[in-house]
């Protein structure tokens, strides 16, 4: 049995952050939320610098009273702690080129996603601490739950312990942004990346395919587009089921359904042989995610886009998906039934 340690407020000491200059590289979803939470936890405003290019994100930070630095080299030189809160795909270029040459040997680098550290795309000095404080929530929830006095799920780890005190710093930062209130779960960049990419590349693609094929089978059996769209997702029933699963239990939530539904789901799931799915999932995990195949492919796409000699493959992928029966029907239904949505 693998059970993870969970850290609470009592395990963390905010005093470790005294007299430290804390730089937030990025003031987007996570940056804006975490910087505000940290300040509201008592870190003085003058100890916080938001490093951002001069644009609307910078203006937002300024309007909230933060000191904004456009010059990344200057921000890096001042940083005792730097939170990397810009999109994962731009982190290697921005951090390695503009921060790394200017950081102190003792700066703590904080990541909110394991991807770039697990795939070794960021450069660190051995003397630096590298810690992961990765909320499992979108930024607006990180902020609103903090304001309500609640915590939020978060993964924490020390990926490189240059100071010998990296985990304690990670916990202090977790407490500062409000993550240890509900319990921060000990994890690692590897675990976080494996689960994240697996969900994105194995679990959810299968769910998309299940819905797509179910739609076609029921349509062929005579069901209308309108009825299918509402029955399958527009009613928000799947969202409610997942909400109940989070609250009551993955299987226990079934008790909210009719007896016919409970019997059908419980019996049906037991009758399915999951061995082909398991083999497919293992293939994605080991031969696409953990071996770096996906990372290599995605880095190449980023490099091509950077050189501006490539079209964004996302557009092509969206275009392919828009051809399915489900997508075509949904488009027709949405244009007819706006009032019901
Ligand atoms: P955002 O997309 O919200 O980041 C926007 C910020 O990044 C802005 O400040 C923007 O400023 C800056 N930025 C974007 N491009 C560049 C660039 N080329 N150079 C410099 N700055 C840039 O990011 P998120 O908050 O979504 O993600 C940040 C980290 O948090 C990631 O590691 C992500 O995996 C992780 N995370 C995100 C979650 C989420 O809910 N979104 C949940 C948990 C973790 P400007 O454009 O002005 O430069």
TrEMBL record:
Residues 4-187 form the KARI N-terminal Rossmann domain. Pfam families: KARI_C, KARI_N. InterPro entries: 6-PGluconate_DH-like_C_sf, KARI, KARI_C, KARI_N, NAD(P)-bd_dom_sf. Keywords: Amino-acid biosynthesis, Branched-chain amino acid biosynthesis, Oxidoreductase. GO terms for molecular function: ketol-acid reductoisomerase activity. One of its GO terms (biological process) is L-valine biosynthetic process. PROSITE patterns: KARI_N (PS51850). The keyword Oxidoreductase applies. The keyword Transport does not apply. Pathway: Amino-acid biosynthesis; L-valine biosynthesis; L-valine from pyruvate: step 2/4; Amino-acid biosynthesis; L-isoleucine biosynthesis; L-isoleucine from 2-oxobutanoate: step 2/4. Belongs to the ketol-acid reductoisomerase family. PANTHER family: KETOL-ACID REDUCTOISOMERASE, MITOCHONDRIAL. This is Acetohydroxy-acid reductoisomerase.
């Amino acid at each position: 049995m693998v059970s993870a340690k969970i850290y609470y407020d009592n395990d963390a000491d905010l005093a470790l952050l005294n007299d430290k200059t804390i730089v937030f590289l990025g003031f987007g979803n996570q940056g804006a939320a975490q910087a505000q939470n940290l300040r509201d936890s008592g870190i003085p405003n003058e100890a916080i610098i938001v490093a951002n290019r001069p644009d609307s994100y910078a203006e937002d930070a300024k309007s909230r009273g933060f000191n904004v630095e456009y010059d990344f080299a200057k921000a890096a030189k001042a940083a005792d702690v730097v939170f990397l809160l810009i999109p994962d795909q731009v982190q290697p270029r921005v951090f390695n080129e503009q921060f790394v040459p200017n950081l102190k040997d003792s700066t703590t680098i904080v990541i909110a996603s394991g991807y770039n550290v697990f795939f070794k795309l960021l450069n660190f000095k051995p003397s630096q601490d590298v810690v992961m404080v990765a909320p499992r929530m979108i930024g607006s929830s990180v902020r609103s739950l903090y304001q309500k006095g609640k915590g939020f799920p978060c993964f924490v780890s020390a990926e490189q312990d240059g100071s010998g005190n990296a985990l304690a710093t990670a916990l202090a930062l977790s407490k500062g942004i409000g993550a240890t209130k509900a319990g921060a779960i000990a994890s690692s960049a590897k675990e976080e990346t494996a689960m994240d990419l697996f969900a994105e590349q194995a679990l959810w693609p299968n769910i998309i395919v299940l819905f797509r094929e179910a739609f076609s089978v029921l349509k062929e059996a005579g069901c209308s587009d309108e009825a299918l769209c509402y029955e399958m997702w527009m009613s928000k029933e799947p969202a409610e089921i997942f909400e109940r699963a989070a609250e009551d239990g993955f299987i226990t939530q079934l008790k909210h359904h009719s007896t016919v539904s409970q019997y059908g789901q419980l019996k049906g799931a037991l009758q399915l042989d999951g061995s082909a799915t398991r083999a497919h999932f293992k293939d994605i995990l080991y031969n696409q995610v953990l071996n770096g195949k996906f990372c290599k492919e995605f880095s190449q796409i980023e490099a091509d886009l950077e050189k501006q000699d490539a079209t964004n493959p996302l557009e092509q992928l969206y275009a392919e998906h828009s051809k399915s029966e489900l997508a075509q029907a949904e488009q027709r239904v949405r244009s007819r039934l706006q009032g019901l949505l």
